[in-house]
Write a structure and sequence with these properties.
It is globular and about 55 Å long. It has one domain (3-400). It has a two-stranded antiparallel ribbon. It has helices at residues 3-29, 36-50, 69-79, 83-86, 88-112, 118-134, 143-156, 161-172, 178-188, 192-213, 221-227, 239-246, 268-295, 300-317, 331-365, 367-371, 375-400; strands spanning 251-255, 260-264. The chain is built from 17 helices and 2 strands. 69% of the residues lie in helices and 2% in strands. The longest helix is centred in the last third of the chain and has 35 residues, at 331-365. The protein is mainly alpha-helical.
């Protein structure tokens, strides 16, 4: 490796480390408790499980897939030596930040390697800048654990399809969204049957383990729990209701069951009810387009990135929930798109960076004002949601334009 390459790599890794330190520290400094879920929810869940109390997902229904508890337990174990000096909450927060940074570092190493190509360097810089713009919400949520798994899984989907399927399936058992990447890979890759069988085997192993630990009706609680959710204020479909709230025709209320702020207004429940079926329809249509392209010989490098981005963006746009950490889901498909086809990835990458910046402006920087339905944060959130819809349109447009070369027929 040349001296120039070494310097570039050192600068890249230095930026990675600094941004993680800055982002982790911002969680302590920014308003609206951006670390709240970690210390107020994850730590009590893990403490209860380790002390013989209730085990979420096992002894009681949970909003997350069961493997989400594993990193929470790991952080709790890591925090134990620090508790005497820092206190339980501070120790757990530091342990969580370290865990996320270590997992990110592993994925970053897979991305850049020892002598990264220019597309991989650009993808790495995109990741660093996106995390900086998104702020502490990019680290202090369970979604942060799934991002490195998704990045590695996406990068390995061609040369190590079985390993990729394992990582993406584990990711989906932590937070559902990596399943969209797995679906895109199965559609676009030639080794789809190997990936399907691997994913099925991993899921079967998880289900058996859950049954052994005593779960039964709680196994799929993360799906049934979602059905009772209302329309969260940051969801794309909630945007018109926020403007109604400014006019006094709608209210923002806190749900103690789901621990989030939701819209209370005439028509909000009807909109919430239709979103999940609509999401299924859109996912099926996008998958069908991808399947048609694959059947006509589209290359994996051209098909997988826009297909993955379209599916993931659909899970955000057509969702009754609009949590700020959802923007982290967009990083893996864009990183892969840059690696495979950086010219066509430029537009989506810029849109995702804009989404990260706008999301940070909303949460945590102006969230209190948003809860008061003030015009400026509602306008910023509206712009963020419009950009999300534009990103979905860009992804679908790129998917439709993927060249499909008819496979040659063989003659006996």
């Amino acid at each position: 490796m040349s001296r120039t390459s070494t310097i570039r790599l050192v600068v890249l890794w230095s930026a990675f480390a600094v941004v993680h330190l800055v982002t982790a520290a911002a969680g302590w400094l920014f308003p609206s408790q951006p670390m709240g879920d970690v210390v107020l929810v994850y730590e009590p869940w893990s403490s209860a499980a380790l002390s013989g109390g209730e085990i979420v997902g096992i002894t009681e229904t949970w909003v997350y897939p069961q493997l989400a508890l594993v990193p929470m337990l790991v952080a709790k174990i890591l925090s134990t030596p620090l508790i005497a000096a820092l206190g339980a909450s501070a120790a757990y927060l530091i342990a969580w930040a370290v865990l996320v940074a270590v997992l990110d570092a592993i994925a970053f190493a897979v991305l850049v390697g020892r002598s990264p190509s220019q597309p991989r360097r650009i993808a790495a810089w995109f990741w660093v800048v996106a995390l900086l713009l998104l702020g502490p919400i990019g680290m202090y949520r369970i979604d942060a654990i799934t991002v490195p798994l998704a990045v590695i899984g996406a990068l390995w989907s061609v040369r190590r399809p079985a390993a990729a399927a394992v990582l993406l399936t584990i990711g989906a058992w932590i937070k559902i969204w990596p399943g969209a990447l797995l679906l895109a890979a199965v559609v676009a890759a030639k080794s789809r049957m190997r990936m399907l069988l691997t994913a099925a085997a991993v899921s079967a192993g998880v289900l058996v383990a859950l049954l052994v630990f005593g779960a039964d009706a709680e196994i799929f609680g993360f799906l049934t729990e979602q059905t009772g959710r209302g329309l969260q204020i940051e969801a794309v479909a909630a945007t018109p209701f926020l403007w109604l709230a400014i006019a006094g025709a709608a209210r923002i209320e806190y749900s103690f069951d789901i621990l989030t702020f939701q819209i209370s207004a005439q028509g909000a429940d009807a909109v919430s009810a239709v979103l999940t079926p609509l999401m299924v329809v859109v996912v099926v249509v996008i998958t069908a387009i991808g399947g048609l392209k694959a059947s006509r010989g589209a290359s994996f490098a051209r098909l997988f990135p826009p297909l993955a981005l379209s599916l993931v963006t659909t899970l955000i746009v057509v969702n009754k929930v609009g949590s700020p950490q959802f923007q982290t889901w967009l990083l893996a498909p864009v990183i892969l798109w840059i690696v495979f086809d950086r010219t066509r990835a430029a537009g989506p990458a810029l849109l995702v960076l804009a989404l990260c910046a706008l999301t940070c402006l909303i949460y945590p920087l102006s969230y209190d004002a948003l809860l008061r339905a003030e015009a400026l944060p509602v306008a910023v959130l509206t712009l963020r949601n419009v950009v999300l819809v534009v990103l979905l349109a860009v992804g679908i447009r790129a998917l439709v334009r993927v060249p499909a070369h008819h496979l040659p027929t063989t003659r006996e």
